[in-house]
Amino acid sequence: MQVKWIDKADILKYLKRLKALSIHPAARAVFMLLVITIMATIVVEIFEANKNDQFTSYWDSVWWVFVTITTVGYGDKVPVTPAGKILGVIIMFVGIALLSIITATISSIFVTRKIKEGKGLQDIKTKDHILICGWNSDAEQILDTLELSDIKHQEVVMINQLSEEAIDDIISHHSSIAIKFVRGDFTKESILNRANAKFAGAALVLPDESVLGEKMGDEKTILATLSLKAINPKIKVYVHILDRENIPHLTKARADEIIVSDAYTGFLMANYVTYPGIPQLVLQLCSPKSANKLKRRMLPNELIGKSFKDLKSYYYQKYSGVLLGIGQMTQPFDLSDLMKDDTSSLDDFIKRKFQEAGRGIGSNEQVKIQINPAEATSLSKNDFYLSIERTE
Question: Where are the alpha helices (DSSP H) in the chain?
């Protein structure tokens, strides 16, 4: 049987925790309360045991001390000796003082925590939450869309440097979403750790204008993506950039999806002239207030292995809407799984070339969309389908 020795560093760590706990006012008050309870129990047992039928055992004395020190005073057990009565008075006053300290300390802890939450200084403990890194005019629309979605119960953690008044207005305006706030620079790992990025499900990184006098740019977006992926390689990072020339940098940083500002402005403007109605359709579908919403539904098991034609028949029998197409979640591909543990120079060369291209040796999960595919298109277990449906 192997004996596991306690490391000296662990002992020192536990001693430091005990020292920190010992200087805490609440811990001291609780310790004094326990000591006084034990001493008072012994003393009252000496005074009352042979002269009072109400104290027939040691646990009767313990019960009386607890009832007296908390000033509850049930009256089921009462000291009859002068020394016992004097002891009871002393315990009452000591109990009032110590319980006041404990109550005040506990209240102070909760009040301090609430103040820290309001200032964005409290550590986030939630998991699988959505991070919104940065703030600009588009962030309000993101919250509006999340509020109308099926995942509005999922907690949202905002990381920016807006004023407390602005944060309070945002939280009150979107009261149906569980929003928490972390103040600071979202490119710093310490701030991302406070937001519990290690256990977050997704992150939306925006060009930040929450700092007065600071011009929006893509530099913070790139740094934040690198930091997020370093802390949590599994997190989905969706970024909004201003300059399309920074797409290669975000690709190397392993951003899952990249949206470029004004990427479709030319398309919409041209279609206002050539095909009026198409831009209005796109804008209406993108509006959170539209009565018609884009829907994403998972493929039922009975349709796996069948064709898109079967899906159309199934959909129009069950729903009232317009079936647009199908999508597929491709599973992550890890190049290292195909290579030997004892890698050859050729394997090293392949890995190095992938890394130089910003792809790494593992690719992220991707979404592939087929709009209006051929009816014979086969459906697989990783497929989902997209539609336009009217909200009630």
Answer: 8-22, 25-48, 58-69, 82-119, 137-147, 164-173, 189-194, 219-231, 247-252, 265-274, 278-286, 308-318, 345-356
Mean pLDDT of the chain: 82
Dump the DSSP string for 97-148: HHHHHHHHHHHHHHHHHHHHHHHT-SPP---S-EEEES--HHHHHHHHHHHT
What's the pLDDT tens digit per position in 26-37?
A: 677 778 778 888
In this structure, the strands spanning 236-241 and 257-260 are parallel
Single pTM value for the model: 0.66
**CA distances in angstroms from 173 to 116, 131, 166, 177, 260, listed in the order given:** 21, 18, 11, 10, 28
For residue 104, the tally of other CB atoms under 10 A from its CB is: 13
- Identify the DSSP state of 245: G
Cα distances (angstroms) measured from residue 128 to each of 48, 58, 197, 199, 273: 60, 52, 9, 6, 45
* pLDDT tens by residue, 329-339: 765 544 444 44
> Which residue in this structure is represented by tokens 């009975």?
302
DSSP-derived secondary structure for 320-377 = -EEEEEEEEEEPPEEGGGGS-SS--HHHHHHHHHHHHTT--SEEPPEEEEEES--TT-
Give the confidence band of 363 by pLDDT, cuts at 50, 70, 90. Answer: very low
Q: Alpha carbon of 239 to those of 102, 292, 373: distances in Å?
A: 48, 26, 29
Instruction: Give me the domains of the chain, ranges plus CATH numbers.
Output: 8-119 (1.10.287.70), 130-260 (3.40.50.720), 291-390 (3.30.70)
Token pair, residue 330, equals: 């491709």
Owner of token pair 């039922």: 300
